[in-house]
Amino acid sequence: MDYPLVSVTIDNQVVKRPCIFTHEQIEHAIDVIAYDIVTRFDKHKHLNQARPITLVAIKNGGVRFAEALYDRLCRDARVDVSYTTVSVTSYKDRKSSGHLVWREKYSIPLPGRILILCDDLADTFITLNDLEKYTMNLRKHPDAVYTAVLISKPSAPS
């Protein structure tokens, strides 16, 4: 299969690399994820269970994905959605360290909310799983935590 070429800068040199996913394919994937969130948390269907949804972008990679998802969800009156960021990693020198290193923690009250942790790429899900466990073990934790990932590497557990 021939993929279109895009220009990228590597070591201060512009090189052509294949573009596996087009802009349209990525936008469609975000539309599908937004649709799934709306149908799962439609506040009109579940009025007695309606809780605000907060998208939590994991910096830096998850920010653009979470912002695009947030834009789509804001257009739909069936969900009550807000947006925030955290900065956390479980990697050091490109290898998983097995524990979370925080750079920026939650800046919002969590109880009564549904959190959706958003990241652009998951290769092992270690950071996302550790962040979910940490969040649910907080004394004042959210009602539920879910994850939304744009791309999962083939090596990631399904």
What's the rounded overall pLDDT mean? 82
CATH topology: Rossmann fold
User: In percent, how helical is the residue content?
Assistant: 25-40%
Secondary-structure element sequence?
EEHEHEEEHE
Structural class: alpha/beta
Which stretches are low in confidence, meaning pLDDT under 50 for 5 or more residues running? Answer: none
Which strand order spans the largest sheet, edge to edge or round the barrel?
5-4-3-6-7
The CATH architecture classification is 3-Layer(aba) Sandwich
Distance between the termini: 26 Å
How many β-strand runs? 7
Tell me the name of the CATH class: Alpha Beta
Biggest sheet overview: 5 strands, mixed
Key terms for this structure?
single chain; 158 residues; alpha/beta; Rossmann fold; five-stranded mixed beta sheet; two-stranded antiparallel sheet
Task: Walk me through the structure.
The protein is α/β, with parallel strands linked by helices. It has one domain: Rossmann fold. It has helices at residues 23-41, 62-74, 126-136, and strands at residues 5-10, 13-18, 53-58, 81-92, 95-104, 114-122, 144-152. β4 (81-92) and β5 form a beta hairpin.
SSE arrangement:
Layout: E1 5-10, E2 13-18, H1 23-41, E3 53-58, H2 62-74, E4 81-92, E5 95-104, E6 114-122, H3 126-136, E7 144-152
Parallel strand pairs: 3-4, 3-6, 6-7
Antiparallel strand pairs: 1-2, 4-5
Helix pairs in contact: 1-2
In short:
The chain has a single domain (22-152), classed as 3-Layer(aba) Sandwich (Rossmann fold). It is built from 3 helices and 7 strands.
